[in-house]
Amino acid sequence: MTIITLSIPSTNPSFFSSSPKSFKFNPKSSSQLSPSPTSLPKTDKVIIIGAGLAGLAAATHLNSRNIPFLLLESSDAVGGRVRTDIVDGFRLDRGFQIFITAYPEAQKLLNYPSLNLQKFYSGAKIFYDGEFHTVADPLRQFFDSAKSLTNPIGSIFDKLLIGTTRIGVLTKSDEQILTSEEFRTIDLLKQLGFSESIITRFFRPFFGGIFFDLELETTSRLFDFIFKCLALGENTLPANGISAIPEQLAARLPSDSILLNTEAVSIDFGNSESPRVRLKNGDVLNSGLGVILAVEEPALVKLLAGRQIRAIKKPVRSTLCLYFTAEPDDIPVRDPVLFLNGSGRGIVNNMFFVTNVAPSYGPPNKALVSVSLIGLFKDEPDDELVDKVVQELSGWFGDRMVKEWKHLRTYRIEYAQPNQCPPTNLKKNPNVEPGLYLCGDYFTSATFDGALVSGRRAAESLLKDRGFVG
Question: Which positions fall inside the Amine oxidase domain (predicted)?
């Protein structure tokens, strides 16, 4: 076993500078990522465990203050749950993921033009009573929205109520939304006056697909935040896959600051001011500056075994995503639109033709189909689920067309999101032990933006505790 001590030097002026069917993934920024912990630095660094969005955000904030850090990632690439695989020339995001351009923290951290964001249609097509009905954003798709006023996806009053609800969230700051009195989303919708028909046919499949929660038990704070972001921004996909987001953050960090395939197995506290990180290979890292733990809740429990930490009492949110390939003539539309299941029956929640949104997700003259289910379906083998999905979508688009699709891959994602049913605290203190700071979307809001915010807050808390900021 090797013990590597990262002690605080007596002076370091730079600290006070404020300059602002096998799974395979090959990150484009891999040249700046160290593949393994063959030689660990022996200089003073903050240790960050987990290179998902939260860990990358924490690293970005420390780097902007010239605070040295070491970012440890157990897998072969950055991103955490935000990953993209290349399979037979197709880009497969690990599960249904959409990037909303109005995320406020993301706007501060990311370079949108370089992500080459591809937009969805501002609305959705809802399958109900054997046919599709359009729900459209009246500010972006006025004529489509006007034509949809009399369709059966809710009453005219429901559709006008969506407008007033939109105005309501736009008049509130993010701080007001995330600290407001909270309810379950389903209870909020009923209190606002929405009918059961629009809740069942639109809100359940749409927001249920965002929260991975068909019962809409997620906190109204998160509903209002997402609703506001949807009103202000666009639903998009980066042209190179959802993994382009964490890759962009990683590419800006020092070339030797990220160690991949480096698994931390425990956090030891001992008598020092900062905890020690024990690695799977037996090495132990001591940091005098502190440790930021940016892992999912289940991994957190294992790393802090025996410590007084908050137990996971709510079941996590799970999802299942199936990808199919098709010939261009075997898909029904060319529009970049999201399809929702408003029938209240079947297992498909939502689907879309990915290459209609971002042609770069597939080879030339090939179509990519993404189908999402809510839950894990543990008792059903992949081949049976594929058959059920094909049969169900044959009822949507026609048997002849869907039977030509070829199954490419199925992703079962047990931990897709933390469960954020009320009561919630979306502004938790990241400093839970002396020298130990926690971050992740379970600490703030279960969104891309929440993960980024939590990483920044953890870094800010560490800097304040160490006296690097006032």
Answer: 53-462
Structure tokens at 427: 């502004």
- 86: its two tokens: 């290349």
**DSSP state, residue 16:** G
Alpha carbon 329 to chain centroid distance? 32
Burial of 118 (0-12, 13-18, 19+ CB in 10 A): buried
- For residue 198, give the H/E element and its range: helix 196-198
Per-residue DSSP letter, 46: E
State which H helix or E strand residue 412 sits in: strand 406-417
Instruction: Name residue, tokens 């920024």.
Output: 29
- Which tens digits make up the pLDDT trace of 248-301? 999 999 989 999 999 999 998 766 667 889 999 999 998 878 999 999 988 888
CA distance 182 to 421: 10
Give every CB contact of residue 97 below 8 A, 6+ residues apart in sequence: 82, 242
Single pTM value for the model: 0.90
DSSP state of 260: S
Structure tokens at 77: 């690439």
Question: How many C-beta atoms surround the C-beta of residue 344 within 10 A?
Answer: 10
The CA–CA distances, whole Å, from 198 to 13, 156, 205, 217, 251 equal: 60, 10, 10, 17, 44
Contact 285, 40 (CB under 8 A): yes
Characterize 268-286 residue by residue with b for buried, 16 or more Cβ atoms within 10 angstroms of its Cβ, and e for exposed. Answer: ebeeeebbbbbbeeeeebb
Q: What distance in Å separates the CA atoms of residue 293 and residue 214, rounded to the nearest whole number?
A: 31
Model confidence pLDDT, tens digit, residues 388-410: 999 999 999 999 999 999 999 99
Q: How far apart are CA 272 and CA 288, in angstroms?
A: 8
Which are the contacts of 49, defined by CB distance < 8 A and separation ≥ 6?
Answer: 55, 72, 264, 277, 291, 292, 293, 294, 295, 303
Return the structure tokens found at 92.
């497969």
